[in-house]
Write a structure and sequence with these properties.
This protein is α/β, with parallel strands linked by helices. Helices cover 45% and strands 18% of the residues. Strand 3, helix 5 and strand 4 form a beta-alpha-beta unit. It is elongated and about 60 Å long. The two termini are 30 Å apart.
Length: 271
Amino acid sequence: MLLVQLGKEEGRKLAQHLSRRKRSSGEIGRKTILVIDDEPSSLELATHILTNDGFRVLTATSVREGKELLQAGSDICLVITDLRMPGEDGFAVLTFIKENLRFHNIPVIVFTSCSYGDFVTRAIKLGAVDYLAKPFNAESLLARVHRTLERSKGVVLLVTDDKLQKEMLVRDLEAAGLQIVTATTGAEASAILKTSQFRLVISELALHDMTGLDLMLSTQEFCPGLPFLFLGDPSMRITDNDIRSAGGFGLIDRPLSNVDVLRKVRAVRCR
């Protein structure tokens, strides 16, 4: 199947399809932020600030509504939630995201109007990456949002069911300062990609449930332009040029070399 997908004609069609997706990204390319707050004035202010800065904003006035928006499969890259709300509160949001595989990599910023330090400490322990005291202004909100999203540029999704290769790659990439999220199947990877922001995907060419090219093509539907590197094998008779002609960024041949892996990953990050 891989050789058929990488035929000259099929490779050309796939590359053209990816190129069209990149050119027509439009609304798809805008980062989506979910804001959860039961105070209408705070919700309206945050929405106004973020929308004017080019973000797409989803709003919820309760934790229940926020969970529904997350589960709807939208491309949310950041959650901002108030801590103190009636019924379920911001801590429930943090716990839900932390314990759910689909959402655990989405960063969370918390609003707090409480001066007690233990509130913030508890939120950080539950996974909040930053906090913002109420009342807030545009400068303070945008500074935290951009800082949080900038950190996510170093996140790499590694898709492989080879435990030894995974351990080696995670060790080497984390040593290079990258944050690594792993998946073992194409379906698992696709679910993660729909809910989190990544700088790069490194995937096996042959996955248990699909090919790496299938995963790349389906990902362009909701994350156009995301670069893919593929883990190859000499027995597959597939070259780096084959991968590039199909729209990928390149091939990392086995046996894996630490130098080769880091060189190709850095080349993607420096684009």
